[in-house]
Design the sequence.
């Protein structure tokens, strides 16, 4: 194995690192003594706060760009949780060197050969690496003990690994197992340095270069091993690979070459891996390790800015879509409310059982027959009034049931209209997501309960409306009446109350408001203008209840849009975290 000349840079001058990075190995250079420890802690707190808020961010609406935003969010969560938070928490922890690459590139064999023993399973069956393996020096155990990557890897302590680094053999990037692919990408987020392994036959594959481009974007330190290179094709392959590295911004990355050894099992010869081992020993030194970690950390912090900006824009797009959806729902709900109110004004509530009951009560010989025929000039005792009042109670029950059914039907129609507005032609982007989240399981039960309660509330207002109309008297702009006319009208009302009772008058008023014209005419005959006023008030109250029932459907679907991630200021939380981070870096 040989290292490409000129690809391992000389030791640079001490860079101007963020305070959080300068804390590592501070005692090795007096200039690096951390003078402001609170600044490092503040940076850690800022990154933790950002990690928490990014982790909580959701994208409830499927609109253009949502799939990409979810992927970016997952990537950002991994980068924050797997690399930045643990690195800033324990600045002196070993540099995590993730050995990654495509299927069959020889990653596990390389790791085993570097350590000098079989610490990671290697073989011809694919996928070979089923569980990632992290190998570190025993004296670095405590420094790595709280790293989140330990939750998903097999940990091996071996004295052959230099102190200050930890080798992580990751699953294949192109594994046939989706779980392996996902884990490989997540572990790469935890890396301080990537040791990327490819072969002469696979180095041109698109996927590895796509992953490497993402690493360059966030400033991750990268080295490459070109494995199984036939001697005859070495100049051509190495030249082409170097050109690709330069084209992807990796001109200064170390490149190691392993010749093709033919059919081979077990460890590679020590002389073959010696250049990589020497490079790792140099990397493990305090100055070099600090430089690599610092470069990756600076790059990761800088990469956060466009990522968080992009995420905030995606959150804002969700909020804007929610506003458009809400506006469309508001416009759609006006129709059902108006239609239901017009239907009730036309007497729909009285159709069926209510009209049948009224006919039964007013037919020859029935309890209200003499009242209807006398056109308000009736006689009767208080006992007669109580009897008539009790006799019309079934009418109130019919009115209650009819009102409840009409209100529930108005709500059901409103739901259909609202769902059509969310999913039909011209529906706003993201409407289908709201429709899917708007559960019907409890909606219909709630609708029926609300309609029944509202109907009972309406019929309970019958007697009160009559009393209120009688107390209110004629309108202020009505023609003044003579005292004897006032006295005559008062006497007529007394007779009406005595003949039907307060509950009876209320039932007649409700029937009139529901659309039974004969009931309305009777109440006017009995009470004059007060009867007309009572019917009008009850009819207006019924219209209000219809609109409230429809509004209940709008409120129900609106609860989906009440998601905090759809609030108008949802993106401001991420932008605030970003502003704090910018101020610290």
Sequence:
């Amino acid at each position: 194995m040989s290292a490409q000349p000129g690809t391992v840079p000389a030791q640079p001058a001490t860079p101007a690192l963020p305070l959080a990075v300068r804390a590592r190995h501070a005692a090795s250079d007096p200039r690096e003594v951390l003078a402001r420890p609170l600044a490092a802690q503040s940076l850690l707190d800022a990154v933790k706060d950002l990690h928490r808020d990014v982790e909580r961010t959701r994208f409830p609406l499927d609109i253009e760009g949502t799939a990409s935003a979810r992927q970016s969010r997952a990537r950002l969560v991994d980068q924050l949780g797997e690399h930045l938070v643990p690195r800033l928490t324990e600045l002196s922890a070993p540099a995590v060197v993730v050995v990654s690459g495509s299927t069959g590139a020889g990653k596990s064999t390389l790791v085993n050969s570097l350590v000098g023993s079989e610490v990671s399973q290697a073989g011809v069956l694919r996928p070979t690496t089923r569980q990632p393996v992290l190998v570190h020096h025993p004296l670095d155990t405590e420094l790595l003990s709280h790293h989140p990557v330990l939750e998903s890897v097999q940990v091996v302590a071996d004295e052959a690994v230099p102190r200050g680094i930890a080798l992580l053999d990751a699953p294949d990037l192109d594994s046939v197992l989706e779980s392996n692919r996902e884990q490989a990408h997540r572990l790469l987020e935890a890396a301080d340095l990537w040791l990327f392994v490819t072969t002469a036959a696979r180095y041109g594959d698109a996927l590895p270069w796509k992953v490497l481009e993402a690493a360059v974007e966030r400033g991750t330190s990268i080295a490459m091993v070109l494995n199984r290179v036939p001697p005859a094709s070495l100049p051509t392959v190495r030249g082409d690979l170097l050109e690709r590295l330069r084209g992807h911004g990796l001109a200064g990355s170390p490149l190691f070459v392993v010749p093709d050894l033919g059919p081979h099992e077990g460890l590679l010869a020590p002389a073959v891996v010696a250049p990589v081992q020497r490079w790792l020993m140099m990397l493990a030194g305090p100055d070099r390790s600090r430089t690599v970690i610092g470069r990756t950390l600076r790059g990761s912090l800088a990469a956060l800015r466009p990522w968080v900006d992009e995420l905030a824009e995606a959150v804002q797009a969700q909020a804007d879509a929610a506003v458009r959806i809400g506006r469309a729902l508001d416009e759609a709900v006006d129709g059902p409310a108006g239609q239901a109110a017009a239907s009730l004004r036309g007497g729909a509530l009285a159709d069926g059982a209510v009209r049948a009951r009224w006919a039964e009560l007013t037919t020859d010989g029935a309890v209200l027959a003499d009242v209807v025929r006398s056109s308000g000039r009736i006689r009767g005792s208080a006992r007669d009034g109580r009897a008539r009042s009790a006799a019309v109670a079934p009418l109130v029950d019919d009115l209650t049931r009819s009102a409840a059914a009409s209100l529930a039907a108005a709500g059901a129609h409103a739901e259909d209209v609202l769902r059509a507005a969310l999913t039909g032609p011209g529906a706003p982007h993201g409407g289908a997501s709201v429709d899917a989240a708007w559960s019907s399981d409890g909606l219909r039960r709630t609708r029926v309960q609300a309609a029944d309660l509202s109907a009972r509330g309406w019929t309970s207002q019958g007697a009160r409306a009559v009393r209120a109309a009688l107390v209110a008297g004629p309108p202020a702009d009505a023609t003044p009446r003579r005292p004897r006319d006032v006295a005559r009208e008062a006497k007529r009302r007394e007779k009406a109350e005595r003949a039907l009772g307060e509950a009876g008058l209320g039932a007649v008023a409700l029937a009139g408001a529901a659309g039974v014209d004969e009931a309305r005419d009777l109440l006017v005959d009995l009470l004059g203008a007060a009867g007309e006023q009572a019917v009008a008030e009850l009819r207006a109250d019924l219209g209000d209840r219809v609109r409230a029932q429809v509004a209940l459907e709008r409120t129900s679907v609106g609860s989906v849009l009440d998601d905090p991630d759809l609030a108008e200021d949802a993106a401001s939380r991420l932008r605030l975290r970003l502003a704090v981070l910018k101020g610290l870096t």
